[in-house]
């Protein structure tokens, strides 16, 4: 079952024009929700970000946002997936290929669900990452369909046996290919401010709230590659990765090469925030 427009229809009934601007311009935005215990997680944060992305690229949802939320809940319920992901995107619509906004195109909304299990092994032991230059555009705060730089650099990480690639823009660490990056030094968490150079991650926001509740100091400020290299702990946050320890960066151990105590406290707090059926 898929979301198409404002209906839930069988997959085979979805028909997308090859002239859809999402194909040839990447002219659209998307959002990914986590399903825990059969229900969408952190719905408000995701809906607010999706709405903001649409506004920034000047695409209008063809029906109220509340109706979309209802449709996504119905789609998730129909999928019957205990643990997974719900994806939704909107494009500017189909029109002859030309850069200006088409006058008559109608936005196209699609969405679907897929199984996705919690990465429990990696959450326990941690992952490795490499650092590469951030070659993306300067509006990373928009969750757009233009992800080719992320794809290329993520594959480069996989090719050398790493799980993630951390981006550096002129020596300043921004984020990763599909996650936000945080470091810990002397018990203080530091992460890049939510400006145009990073996506304001929904899990990032949740983790910052959890840190505040635990009395863990957080600084939203830019930090350099050298600080990443000398950090006591490094972790990434995302809808799929949750609070994921990074124990190797460019083949060098982070701290003692094991997930650190601050990361563990935040993992435990995150665990407590998700529905019990998915723990």
Binned, the helix content reads 25-40%
Number of strand segments = 16
Low-confidence stretches: none
Biggest sheet architecture = 10 strands, mixed
Rg, Cα atoms, Å: 19 Å
**What proportion strand?**
25-35%
Overall morphology: globular
Cα-to-Cα separation, first versus last residue:
27 Å
Q: Note the total helix count.
A: 8
Overall pLDDT confidence: 98
Which class of secondary structure composition applies to the elements?
A: alpha+beta
The string of secondary-structure elements, in order, is EEHEEHHEEHEHEEEEHEEHEEEH
Defining key terms:
alpha+beta; 10-stranded mixed β-sheet; 6-stranded antiparallel β-sheet
Please describe what this structure looks like.
- With 279 residues, the protein is of the alpha+beta class.
- Helix content is 30%, strand content 29%.
- The protein has eight helices and 16 strands.
- Strands 7, 8, 9, 10, 11, 12, 13, 14, 15 and 16 form a ten-stranded mixed sheet that branches. A six-stranded antiparallel sheet has the order 2-1-6-5-3-4.
- A hairpin with a 2-residue loop joins strand 1 and strand 2 (7-9).
- The radius of gyration is 19 Å and the shape is globular.
- The mean pLDDT is 98.
Provide the fold topology.
Layout: E1 2-4, E2 7-9, H1 21-24, E3 28-36, E4 39-40, H2 43-57, H3 65-79, E5 84-91, E6 108-115, H4 120-125, E7 127-133, H5 148-159, E8 164-169, E9 172-176, E10 180-185, E11 188-191, H6 202-214, E12 218-220, E13 223-224, H7 225-229, E14 233-238, E15 242-249, E16 252-253, H8 261-273
Helix pairs in contact: 6-8
